[in-house]
Amino acid sequence: MSIFSDVKEHLTARQVAEYYGIQVKRNGMTCCPFHDDKHPSMKIGNNYHCFACGVGGDAVDYVSRMFGLSQYEAALKLIDNFQLPIQAGKHAKLNKKEKERIRRKNEEQARIIKIKERFKRWCSQTIDILKERLEQIEQAGCFLKDQPIDIIFSEDYASLLHSEPIINYWLDILCMGSTEEKQELFMKGRRKVEKVAERVRNCGKRIMDADRGSTGCGNEQRRRCAF
Q1: How many other C-beta atoms can be found within 10 angstroms of the C-beta atom of residue 26?
Q2: For 131-144, how does the pLDDT look when each residue is reduced to its tens digit (9 = 90+)?
Q3: CA 34, 36, 39 angle in degrees (round to 5)?
Q4: Is the Cβ–Cβ distance between 182 and 174 less than 8 Å?
Q5: Which pLDDT band holds residue 154 (cuts at 50, 70, 90)?
Q6: Tens-place pLDDT, residues 82-101
Q7: Where are the alpha helices (DSSP H) in 27-154?
Q8: Which DSSP symbol is given to 30?
Q9: pLDDT given for residue 114 in this prediction
Q10: In what order do the strands lie in the sheet with 56-57?
Q11: Shortest CA distance to 156 belongs to which of 167, 172, 143?
Q12: Residue 90 near residue 71, CB atoms below 8 Å
């Protein structure tokens, strides 16, 4: 029996994918990590197959494709990572330098996977947050439109109006931009995104807190704005 058959006797493609950070739904569907998949298009169990980009195979093939390894290197990686009771003669003969090279390569690939997962979560969470901030700006504008001039031109509302275009710009990138544009925003701009989102949240809260402290007209204005 070959090393590949031995590995596949112990592991399914789903076990391997989940071990390396892929979240699989109960029905076995998940977003394909091998293309920019926004909706789950990969079916994964003993083997895997993506109905969108067409890739597929077994547990060894999955690791080979994910980490850019040969089939044999992928099998060795699985034996090592899962501590499988499989003897691989050539693996035992690897010299110390080669083992260290494989170890560093595996660590780097694991780090890249974590960064990709963090990037995906950040994009999804940031879209939700920025949409909420636009709603806050709209609510504040609805409340303030019938207020005295000195209240309308408060520093808080000026800050909201200043933030609105940049929030729309970021949403355009996150919802319709290229992967490169999203990655650049994630790497270079996420601190600014978080700072602006927090400022809008605080300014909007202060404006609406003043609304709740008013004589009741604010509630009526919010109802009108909702329609």
Answers
A1: 5
A2: 999 999 998 888 77
A3: 105
A4: yes
A5: confident
A6: 988 887 654 445 556 666 77
A7: 59-67, 71-81, 89-92, 96-144, 149-152
A8: E
A9: 84
A10: 29-30, 42-44, 48-50, 56-57
A11: 143
A12: no
